[in-house]
Amino acid sequence: MDRIILHVDMDAFYASVEMRDDPSLRGKPLIIGSLPSERGVVATCSYEARPFGVRSGMNIKDAYRLCPQGIYRHPDFDKYRAVSRQLHEIWESYASAAEAIALDEAYLDITQQAGDWDGARRIAREIKRRTREELQLSCSVGLAYSKTAAKTASEEKKPDGYFEIPTPQAFVDLILDRDVQVLYTVGEKTARKLHAAGIETVRDLQESGRRT
What we know:
Distance between the termini: 35 Å
Strand order of the largest sheet: 5-6-1-7-8
Order of helices and strands: EHEEHEHEEHHEHEHHH
CATH superfamily of the largest domain: Reverse transcriptase/Diguanylate cyclase domain
Structural class: alpha/beta
CATH class of the largest domain: Alpha Beta
Largest sheet: 5 strands, mixed
Number of helices: 9
CATH architecture of the largest domain: 2-Layer Sandwich
CATH topology of the largest domain: Alpha-Beta Plaits
Strand content: 15-25%
C-alpha cells in the first residue's frame, strides 16, 4: 500500500491563540512580533492584517507603515509552547509516525491507521474537529502521497482548509503553471536567478531540464 501522509498546519498560530484568549482582538489586524517603536520583525499576523501587505518576517517598521491601525503585541512563547503540546498530542494519536516541524505544524504518517483514502479523509476531518472543539483553534490539513505534496496541499485552502493530492500526476498538474517558488527547494534568491534566466514557472523549469 502506498503511504498516506497528512500535513497539519495551524492558521496564523500565535495570532489565533491571542484572539482566542482575548475576544476583543477578533476581526482586527493583529501583528505579533516587535512593537513599532522597537527593532524587529513580524513573527506572524492575523488574516485581517494580510490585505494591508503585512507578512511574517517583515521588518516591523514596514508593517507599521502599511498598517498603522494594527494592534501590535509581543509574542508569549511559554503560552504557545503549552498550546503546541496539546495540539501535537491530538495529532500524533492518529499516526504511526510523526515529525513535528514547528510548534504549529507536523507531518503524520497515517497509512496504517487510515487503511485507504476514505479512512484518511475521516482522520483529517477528525483532527480538524478536535483541534477546533478542544482548543478553539483552526488548522489547515493537506493529505497526499508524500511529505512535499502534503505540505503543498495544506497551503491550498488556508485558512481552515482541506485539500488532497493523491498521486504524483495530480501534484504535477496542480503546480505546473505556477511560479517556480512553489517548489520548497526554491527560495527567493534561487527564484530571482531562475526568473532572470527566463524560467518563471515549474513548466519552464521542466522544459529547461529536458533541453539540457
